[in-house]
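To illustrate the input format used throughout this study, we show a single complete record. The first block contains the structure-token representation of the backbone; no residue identities are included at this stage. The design step must infer an amino acid for every position from geometry alone.
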């Protein structure tokens, strides 16, 4: 049974996300829409894609947005490196280091996947995590793990830099748009998923013949973005591992 495969929408970078939904938008020609009988689902999707395109376009023209993206990637890489440090601590032969690493790892896990949070929420979450790690209750565990304080301090510096850039960018763009690209994605994604669900159901019920070309083309785009993400993730892990090695 042919079907549209799941797309990692939540994990795509801004440009990748817009690229994928734009590819679907282009595939949804008037002829295709009529053939599939999905007119009610397509109109809100196309409107959402237009809003996301405009929001990202404005952000890309702003210098501080570029700096924010670099800083955001840096703080996420630092958190990845810190997690590697904790994993190494959990495997350490010293029971004291094992215990400290497990306690700190539990604290980090409480905050979930920070990458998936909106900009402002991610900054607040990082700040809360750092404050909890450096609290009087947990500071002794931080002290047990060598270099952990350096990682936490660096995360704090980079996170506050991001917060300052975020505020500055918002002041500069407050009169030019009312939604961020992440807010726009929150509207685009349900529309995209509704279309995917409908087409998959139609292909299952009526046979795949008239849907095969559309599904294969969209799946090709999705696989391409998945492969790109895998390469990028491998590069980030390698960079984090190198930083961890250099810090020792």
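Output of the design step:
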């Amino acid at each position: 049974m042919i079907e549209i495969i799941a797309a990692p929408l939540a994990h795509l970078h801004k440009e990748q996300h817009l690229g994928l939904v734009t590819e679907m938008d282009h595939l949804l020609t008037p002829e295709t829409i009529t053939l599939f009988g999905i007119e009610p689902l397509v109109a809100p999707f196309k409107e959402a894609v237009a809003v996301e395109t405009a929001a990202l376009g404005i952000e890309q023209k702003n210098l501080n947005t570029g700096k924010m993206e670099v800083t955001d990637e840096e703080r996420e890489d630092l958190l990845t490196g810190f997690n590697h440090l904790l994993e190494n601590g959990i495997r350490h032969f010293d029971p004291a280091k094992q215990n400290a690493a497990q306690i700190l790892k539990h604290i980090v896990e409480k905050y979930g996947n920070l990458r998936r949070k909106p900009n402002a929420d991610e900054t607040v979450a990082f700040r809360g995590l750092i404050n909890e790690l450096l609290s009087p209750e947990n500071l002794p565990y931080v002290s047990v793990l060598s270099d952990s304080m350096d990682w936490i301090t660096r995360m704090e510096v980079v996170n506050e830099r991001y917060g300052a850039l975020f505020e500055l960018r918002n002041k500069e763009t407050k009169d030019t748009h009312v939604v961020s690209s992440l807010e726009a994605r929150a509207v685009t994604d349900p529309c995209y998923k509704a279309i995917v669900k409908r087409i998959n159901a139609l292909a299952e019920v009526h046979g795949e013949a008239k849907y095969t070309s559309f599904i294969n083309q969209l799946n090709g785009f999705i696989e391409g973005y998945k492969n790109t993400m895998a390469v990028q993730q491998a590069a980030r892990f390698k960079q984090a591992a190198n930083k961890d090695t250099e810090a020792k």
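Structural context for interpreting the output: The chain is about 80% helix and 0% strand. The CA atoms of residues 92 and 133 lie 20 Å apart.
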